[in-house]
Design a protein that fits this description.
alpha/beta; Rossmann fold; six-stranded parallel sheet; four-stranded parallel sheet; globular; ABC_transptr_periplasmic_BD; signal
Length: 340
């Protein structure tokens, strides 16, 4: 199961990058007219066309990355609330802390049907294992029976390889697809286009300085798990964060997003760097201590050289924090390369 968190850059009338983020004006204040409430829009979401009869006014979101996509587009005025566990990090200092202060925190757990109904939601923006699950009964089909539309996070789209495997496109393409779709749905296309262009430029700047060819270090993403590690295949955000930063995800061959593997496969692939996803009940420091002391990993290059970087959960799920995560990992990998 996937647990989550994120932050990044936003918009003013003109987009101004400032470190890990930029400031965003609330919706309707960037010179872009929002759509009239009654005009229908048809979007392609997870490979199928979905028509939304009107502009949502009471959107409910699940988890940090999805919530911050709305904030990054300045759409907090269109939100009725969000669900997010307490283990997703400190949101007091993110670029859109005003959004967190303004929008109601419905649940400090995953989203439920009761949350949705209590909020009188007219759209639920969530994803498979990001709020939607057959186990809980909260699914797009269940919401449709209640007359409530949904939008699925593209990173979470099921791909049909198994009943649960997820991912239909490169992770940053998924981010840009969702921003563009939300821009169309809410009539803030210019805002979305500017944000996408800024993110693409940030990533391109890192890519231009990244190691190439045989110099690209191998990287393992460690989310959690001691008996078996939970990690990123090719369709979760870390895969492209790693590649754009100049590395190679050792689990790139796995055609899934977030998934469990065996320690033997980590040892066999001998990553030169490990990235820890910081969230949950187990601290990043405790995760690092485990990796450094876990006997099967003693001869893995990243462990022997103590090349372990921590990034926040919100950096590593689809979110507007992904470009700043590319920059942070890129700087780390260049620093490591400079030491050799």
């Amino acid at each position: 199961m996937r647990k989550l968190l994120a932050a990044s850059l936003c918009l003013l009338a003109t987009l101004t990058a400032t470190g890990c983020g930029a400031t965003v004006e609330p919706s309707g204040r960037t010179g872009t007219s929002e759509r009239a409430g009654t005009s229908a829009v048809t979007l392609t979401n997870c490979g199928r066309e979905v028509t939304y009869d009107r502009v949502p006014q009471r959107v409910v979101t699940n988890d940090v990355g999805i919530t911050e996509l709305m904030f990054a587009l300045g759409l907090e005025d269109r939100m009725a609330g969000f669900a997010m566990p307490d283990d997703k990090g400190d949101v007091a200092d993110v670029p859109w802390k005003d959004g967190y202060e303004k929008v109601r925190w419905l649940s400090r757990d995953r989203l439920t049907k009761e949350n949705v109904l209590d909020a009188r939601a007219d759209l639920v923006f969530a994803g498979w294992n990001y709020g939607f699950s057959e186990d809980t009964g909260l699914t797009p089909d269940a919401l449709e029976k209640l007359g409530i539309p949904s939008y699925l996070l593209t990173e979470s789209c099921r791909n049909g390889r198994t009943d649960t495997s997820r991912g239909i496109m490169p992770p940053l393409d998924a981010l840009y697809t969702d921003l563009a779709n939300l821009g169309r749905l809410f009539g803030v296309e210019e805002r979305a286009d500017a944000l996408i262009a800024d993110f693409e430029q940030q990533v391109a700047d890192v890519r231009a300085k990244a190691p190439r060819g045989a110099d690209r270090p191998t990287v393992f993403l460690y989310d959690s798990g001691e008996t078996q590690p939970f990690t990123s295949g090719r369709y979760a955000a870390p895969d492209q964060i790693i590649s754009e930063a100049g590395g190679v995800n050792v689990m790139h061959d796995i055609e899934d997003s977030w998934t469990t593997v065996g320690w033997e496969s980590v040892v066999e692939r001998d990553p030169e760097t490990i990235v820890i996803c910081d969230y949950g009940d187990v601290s990043a420091e405790r995760k690092k201590e485990f990796l450094l002391s876990h006997p099967p990993l003693r001869n893995v290059s990243a462990v022997r050289h103590r090349r372990i970087l921590t990034l926040d959960y919100a950096d590593l799920v689809e979110s507007p924090r992904n470009p700043s995560a590319v920059a942070a990992l890129g700087a780390y990998l260049r620093d490591v390369a400079g030491q050799e």
